[in-house]
Amino acid sequence: MAMALSSAALPCSLLMAALMLLASIAQVQGITRYYDFNVTMANVTRLCATKSIVTVNGQFPGPKLVAREGDRVVVRVTNHAQHNISLHWHGIRQLRTGWADGPAYITQCPIQTGQSYVYNFTVVGQRGTLWWHAHISWLRATVYGPIVILPKLGVPYPFPAPYEEVPVIFGEWWQADTEVVIQQALQTGGGPNVSDAHTINGLPGPLYNCSAKDTFKLKVRPGKTYMLRLINAALNDELFFSVANHSLTVVEVDAVYVKPFTVDTLLIAPGQTTNVLLTAKPFYPGANYYMSAAPYSTTRPGTFDNTTVAGILEYEYPGAAPSAASFNKALPLYKPALPALNDTDFVGNFTAKLRSLATPQYPAAVPRTVDKRFFFTVGLGTHPCPANTTCQGPTNTTQFAASVNNVSFVLPTRALLHSHFTGLSSGVYSPDFPVSPLTPFNYTGTPPNNTNTASGTKLMVVPYGANVELVMQGTSILGIESHPLHLHGFNFFVVGQGYGNYDPVNDPAKFNLVDPVERNTVGVPAGGWVAIRFLADNPGVWFMHCHLEVHTTWGLRMAWLVLDGSLPHQKLLPPPSDLPKC
């Protein structure tokens, strides 16, 4: 809609009315927000060592992207680094705009050095905290930032409005180059070297060597409520998080409101976001408090970074100027008690508390019937070593692998979405991903003798509009562990979960079809299973993978192909003219 207004030609009252009309149109339709993301190298010092890292706009973590529900977002990404790059807008539905989703070789070829690509998408029916990150190799170790989607103008939060909102992003820091770390691991067949520190907003904090000056500090006023927008951008670690002597009220996960509940400690897996309300003590307490995060893992020691990161919650001193440095080392410093690193019971109890609001304004549109049922095993496995070599895998004749339904996914050299759209899929992928394991076994019992996985680039094809139910079953091959699975292009409802082997006869009767939590990344429980449902209403090719980066690299990934529907608004839009070429 175009409207030309001349203030000289309109009386003041009419001009005000016209401006109000324009404002109301913008409120309903949203506005377009433009961002320039320049991918550049920057020198960053952590743990008393300086290294060159890939960044966006020289910032680490990267810039915050802000939009309102209904807005169009246009991000021009220009690659000035020596690495190929692609960016993923984690959790954005990308309705019919799969070209803007970002995973390299799935929806696009990467942006090569010296090239640009414009990501163009509209935020439809979403509000809350999401995040963006690199989606090629291990570059997301440093290339990530928050996405804040505000409600439509005039629409309040379904909880008391906080005094202030603060993004809190957990990450991992390697003193080595992470591209070298993963390449060495792939060459040896062994596990990659673990990170040297966890970080909060890019800072390791006082529990690490030489890092007290690099500490995230949150200054609060007595009696005020703060909303922490928590994001786990770590590569390989699920994290417990707690603030000493303060409770946290969970109000949202993965940009979907939940029934509020209050905890001392929460769990957040890589890829997940959690909004929590923290209410400061009513009076100046004369103390400082650690905000701590440490890993949850059931794997062997040495295969993950078992260190704790802390930020500091400090109170403004009464009467002091707001800008005054208030951190006082002489004050007592309280530390939270975090669960044991392998406390799976805590994890199960926490995730069971998550429930959708399921109100008229924010309904839980759970598919009540199912058109397509799938059963996927997810877990580790092995590949034989190349001929005449020894490996550092589970044995000296094997290398680590990971798979879904025993298929270790091989990234193609041409992008899947373009191959599908043009009909030139031959030699790129096959549309025959198995609907269930080809060889059933006791998934959480004694592992089979043969742990080798097949390899391939297979897609699961689903018709538009199908109600999908997917059960993901963890396996005990090479040990039980939790796998945070992320589905691109969709939110899904977590209708059930449990430990041991899924029972298709008795477990569905326990499914929650009333107010299950809705999210985009869910943990498959260690030694257990999770059931999700979603409506396949988004045509395109959509990646699904473990958000533990090492497992994705080893092949714990696959892709869904949702076909076009019959109506115009049910079809994938054509690719943009600047889509990168391989």
Automatic annotation (TrEMBL):
One of its GO terms (biological process) is lignin catabolic process. Binds 4 Cu cations per monomer. Its main location: secreted. The keyword Repeat applies. It is found in: Secreted, Extracellular space, Apoplast. It catalyses: 4 hydroquinone + O2 = 4 benzosemiquinone + 2 H2O. GO terms for molecular function: copper ion binding; hydroquinone:oxygen oxidoreductase activity. Its cofactor is Cu cation. InterPro entries: Cu-oxidase-like_N (IPR011707), Cu-oxidase_2nd (IPR001117), Cu-oxidase_C (IPR011706), Cu-oxidase_fam (IPR045087), Cu_oxidase_CS (IPR033138), Cu_oxidase_Cu_BS (IPR002355), Cupredoxin (IPR008972), CuRO_1_LCC (IPR034288). The keyword Repeat applies. Lignin degradation and detoxification of lignin-derived products. NCBIfam families: laccase. This is Laccase. The lineage of its organism: Eukaryota, Viridiplantae, Streptophyta, Embryophyta, Tracheophyta.
